[in-house]
Amino acid sequence: MKLINLLQRTLAALFILLCFVFIADAQIIAIRAGKIVDPETGTTAINQIILVEGQNIKAIGADVKIPAGATIIDLSKQIVLPGLFDAHTHLCMNVQYKRDGGGNYYITTLLDSNAFRAIQGVANARSMLEYGFTTVRDVGNAGNYADTDLRRAIEQGIVPGPTIINAGRIIAPYGGQFQMQPDKPELGNPEYLYADTRDELKKAVRLNIHYGARVIKIVVDDQRYIYSVDDIKFVIEEARLAGLKVAAHCSTEKGARNAAEAGVDSIEHGLKINNETLEIAKSKNIALVPTPYTENEARENGAPGSYKETNEKLFIEPVKRAYKIGVTLVFGPDVGFTTKEYPRGRLSIETIDNWKEAGIPPLTILQALTSNAAKLLGVEKTRGALRVGMRADIIAVGDNPLDKIETLENVSFVMKSGKVFKQNSVIK
Ligand SMILES: [Zn+2]
């Protein structure tokens, strides 16, 4: 082939390619929304149009003109709102209560390989998206960074799933959350990064960042030796240098106090947190991610009804106090199992019943599921609200969640980053 000929052909091919790119770019989706709920302000606007171009919201309002050729999605009988967040999940772990000694996840980690857990993560991520969760924070227990691979697979469009902020391996004092036995201490690995000294803490944070963590998760107090205020401050400083936030698992009051005084971004569980510590959390803008003890889990564990008292004491009671004091609440129910009948997304969203039971008003629950969570995860500029220029993470339900929060358990439409995943309750 002559050179000039080749050049002409190449230019022609390039031109055609550019045309396609242009057409694809110009493709606009127009959503007719019966109502739009803005969780941040608690307001509802009627008869709105949302224009979506590529990944982003291009326009939103009552007077927005629908351009010719736009794809129209009719949600005029629906209530539209930003996609939901689950800020405390473990996508790459499915505890099998019967097999694993009634929920001892040390056993789970011994029996399920990293590859198997990544596959479980794929199924769980898909389920989360199906139930309206467009962003999740995965707070560890993902073996040897199965969560990083899951995040990458979703980001590359290989599998569907929410945007993931993942923790990699949880950093904890020796033993993590396991009780090992001295002959076989290696059986605990690789699940946590044990870190007791300053050198170990620094190394653990850096290992996590290197292997793809987007948030640092520490377990403060699951052993008799716990992290001190200074330990936690040291971790926060090291994480901040790389722009990462710190989530702290706190099951005791002392652990929660140390985490609050050190200034973590969120206290996870906070089972025994007292009012003084809640006041510190409020003054430092530390979020509380409370985790319920659900009937779904009790049933799965072969003892229906048995979690009621624990839930009352360790979820409802502290959540009520935290709400009264004005601590920022973020939704993240810590679901660590899945069944055929109860896929991960369903198990997560159904825990809004526990929030209702605690007497938390619908708007606060909705903010915990959206705007508050977006701020905690550090994605509030792009996700967690429906505004021009932000990612088109959009869901729709049949009722106004400000009147009836449990309507969120039946999400009929899900769009993530401008791509429709579920429409008319059917996955696309
Ligand atoms: Zn957890």
User: Over all CA atoms, what is the radius of gyration?
Assistant: 23 Å
What's the name of the CATH homologous superfamily of the largest domain? Metal-dependent hydrolases
Low-confidence stretches: 17-25
- SS strand fraction: 15-25%
User: Which percent range fits the helix content?
Assistant: 25-40%
CATH architectural type of the largest domain: Alpha-Beta Barrel
DSSP summary: helix tally: 14
Biggest sheet, strands in spatial order? 3-2-1-4-14-15-16-17
Please give the number of β-strands: 17
Give the N-to-C terminal Cα separation: 45 Å
- What is CATH's topology name of the largest domain? TIM Barrel
Biggest sheet statistics:
8 strands, mixed
**Text of the CATH class of the largest domain:** Alpha Beta
Number of domains: 2
**How would you sum up the global shape?**
globular
Structure commentary:
- With 428 residues, this protein is of the alpha/beta class.
- The protein contains 14 helices and 17 strands.
- The chain has helices at 3-26, 105-111, 114-130, 146-155, 198-210, 229-241, 253-262, 275-283, 295-300, 308-325, 344-349, 352-357, 362-369, 371-377, and strands spanning 28-38, 43-53, 56-61, 71-82, 84-89, 133-138, 163-166, 170-172, 192-194, 216-219, 246-250, 266-269, 287-289, 394-397, 413-416, 419-423, 426-427.
- The strands form 4 sheets. It has an 8-stranded mixed beta sheet, with no helix packed on it.
- The protein starts with a helix and ends with a strand.
- The site of zinc ion (ZN) has 4 residues, from loops.
